[in-house]
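Dihydrofolate synthase/folylpolyglutamate synthase
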Amino acid sequence: MTTLAADREIESLMALHPKGFDLSLDRISRLLERLGNPQDHLPPVIHIAGTNGKGSCAAFSRALLEAAGHRVHVHTSPHLVNWHERYRLAAEGGGRLVEDHVFADAIARVAKANEGETITVFEILTAVTFLLFSEHPADAVIIEVGLGGRFDATNVITEPAVSVIMPVSLDHESFLGDRVELIAAEKAGIIKGGCPVVIGAQESETALQVLIETAERLDCPAFVYGQDFLAFEENGRMVYQDEDGLMDLSPPRLPGRHQFANAAAAIAAVKAAGFEISHRVADKAMANVAWPGRMQKLPPGRLTELAPAGADIWLDGGHNPGAGVVVAEALAEQEEKNPRPLFLISGMINTKDQSGYFRAFKGLVRHVYTVPVSLSEASVPNDELAVRAVEAGLSAEPVSSVANALMLLRDTWDGPPPRILIGGSLYLAGAVLAENGTPPV
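Structure:
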């Protein structure tokens, strides 16, 4: 259980500094210089941007490197339950979430170095990332972009071992632009001159062209999904192919066909970063990879006890139309293998395209229970969210909480054990894991 020291430090920062994002590198660069530029004293960095899939790519990259015996630091955002989840420090036999006293000390030192100047909390916590990762030994570092790429606080890395751009689609339009090519240009901002680039599977040809042209302009060795590497399913296995040949692997532990492409991008990225990945290592990584809150089978806990007997419960924090599509496809794949009636419990925030998310589930979901997202001030009221679901062609009703939705379904459903997806927001995913008593470790 998390102690309070780091939380108290972050609460103090929240009281002093503005919430949200202020896209610029000036403040973070100034702060890092005062700290001795720890971002320049890291092991090889795998820097990952994208609208969807970047967290999965980070999880696969970590699994690959650790399966090969390497010690790996990992920075991801946002967290689900505890701030500590954002910082996984390298350790023999697998990394560990940062210990509370180590985390709290780093926050205090960074805040002191900032000297009260204007800055966002995310920028301070990004500086904490670089300070922690520079002070603890590791063989590699994996860093996930927070928002966009070009002006994201993580983009002070000047020579990444590899930059990775995962699928790009519309999200955060108020920050990044309302056309996919504009968003792709922002994501491409992490590409650095002469440094390798891996471009994951892109649905938009326009986005793909922007990414390829950026890599060419900066004279970067580029590895493009579908051209230089790919993955596909064959006889229940995953086949990965690149210029070095084929690898016949166990299917990824993360469910959904989209995870084949995410895994392939990670294999290509780790190889482009200079690490050797054997068939044995890749196979072990596919079997061991874990990524909480993303098509995660909800572990037994306080919430699962409220569901209909035998229910198959899944949790996913995807929150935009692109994420809705891949989650719906993953559920459709499960329906083909093991048919069950599907119900959706959803909460979303008001900066997301709610109707676009719901449209992906038309014809697949029997009924939607909409709930408030208690951890976010931007939560869409559950009655309004139900209207958005109906507009997308679904049957829906508002319910006061996930627990009540599960109990309502238990008391009213008299068919076979259902499949239940709880999704639509990472805030909701975090709240569910906390209430269920099964936070990430």
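The first helix runs from residue 5 to 16.
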